[in-house]
């Protein structure tokens, strides 16, 4: 089955009718607030609507599981690094406000004082950071994938060009930048399919990408990277020839067949995300003064 990451999935529905410029703002909103949020609940509030939207658009669970593999791998690596770098003193400093408060039971329950100084210990601080990294990266990947799955490349190019309109006052060729970004997004699924094809061809020649030592795997993957680069340059050359034969001139003034217009659906979606951003912003700024103690201490991202 072909990967849906970065690929437009033809269809009709609510998410397809949202203005592509608003979709880009929503992706920026998710990236910013996913990394600014202080509590796991905030990350889940951001992630759950994305999961529902993606399940409605794709109607399959397997692509979501595939997209979770990369952030899961990253979080496991960070967890192992934190085990080697976070010591007992670091944990004590990170949770000093917990120890100084009345909730000493929380420290004894979650962080039993049994490890000696400079001893390598598995702490929930390391687990906290790893889970936070997984939720943030997965949210970012899911938001960008939903953008490309529900937006046609031509409309995405037009949206990027419209959003960069103020840069035209500085005589920056925004139409060229928008075309470059659109082509780069369009080539992501093409290169993924090409890499799968090359891996199957090399495996039929006896190259093993999964087993063996690290040196053997590096040599095996070199047989994938080099043909992939050659194929990428060949496809880029073919694309440039096709654009030239169709009369594409990047610096000439272009007419517009479609003009993007905001609708009442876009207004409702914008108001929803303004409210969501206000709620999470208040949690970040003054959440400790009105949120439950379990929310602000047990579910805090450190």
TrEMBL record:
A family per Pfam: CbiQ
Protein's cellular compartments: Membrane
Membrane topology summary: Multi-pass membrane protein
Transmembrane parts of this sequence: 21-37, 43-58, 131-148, 169-188, 262-286
Main location: membrane
Keywords: Membrane, Transmembrane, Transmembrane helix
GO cellular component terms, semicolon-separated: plasma membrane
Alphabetical list of InterPro entries matching this protein: ABC/ECF_trnsptr_transmembrane
PANTHER family, alphabetized: PROTEIN ABCI12, CHLOROPLASTIC
Name of the protein described by the UniProt record: Energy-coupling factor transporter transmembrane protein EcfT
